[in-house]
Amino acid sequence: QVQLVESGGGLVQAGGSLRLSCAASGSIFSINAMGWYRQAPGKERELVAAISSGGSTYYADSVKGRFTISRDNAKNTLYLQMNSLKPEDTAMYYCASKPPYSDYYDYWGQGTQVTVSS
Predict the structure, then answer these.
(1) How do strand 91-98 and strand 107-108 relate by DSSP bridges?
(2) What whole-number distance in Å separates Cα of residue 17 and Cα of residue 62?
(3) What string of pLDDT tens digits covers the 118 residues of the chain?
(4) Nearest Cα residue to 5 out of 94, 102, 104
(5) What are residue 117's phi and psi, to 5 degrees?
(6) What values do phi and psi take at 34, rounded to 5?
(7) What sign has the CA pseudo-torsion 19, 21, 105, 35?
(8) Bridge partners of 21?
(9) Residue 47's CB: how many other CB atoms inside 10 A?
């Protein structure tokens, strides 16, 4: 069983920055692919960024050049640095973990709210 706990959300003005963290426990963190999803009210959940066990990254077009995903395997922690935030980035952000034996993100955190004011 994997436990994921997000932190770092909050209220920020447009143009500001936030850094989300996701602390993982209960598995070998370094072998899992990890991702950040977000869901705004009335919208579908979307994959924002992902990072493989080897460090390869993926970004949604809407956040390219503004967000950076990283991982610290020694600390079992996933990060999402968010710069130049826009009101449309407002959402609940979730950390997710995909074990190597799975094609899906099987484990999810409880989420952290990010609100960007204009």
Answers:
(1) antiparallel
(2) 16
(3) 789 999 999 999 999 999 999 999 987 888 899 999 999 999 999 999 999 999 999 999 999 999 999 999 999 999 999 999 999 999 999 999 999 888 899 999 999 999 999 9
(4) 94
(5) -95, 150
(6) -130, 150
(7) positive
(8) 7, 79
(9) 14
Residues with Cβ < 8 Å from 49, sequence gap 6 or more? 35, 36, 57, 58, 59, 60, 63, 67, 68, 69, 80
pLDDT tens sequence across 63-85? 999 999 999 999 999 999 999 99
Q: How far is CA 8 from CA 1, 17, 22, in A?
A: 24, 11, 9
The torsion angle over the Cα atoms of residues 79, 61, 83 and 31, rounded to 10 degrees, is 10
Measured from the Cβ of residue 48, the count of other Cβ atoms closer than 10 Å reads: 23
Best CA proximity match to 77, nearest among 10, 20, 17, 1: 20
Rounded CA gap, 106 and 1, in Å? 10
Bridge-based pairing of strands 18-25 and 3-7 is: antiparallel
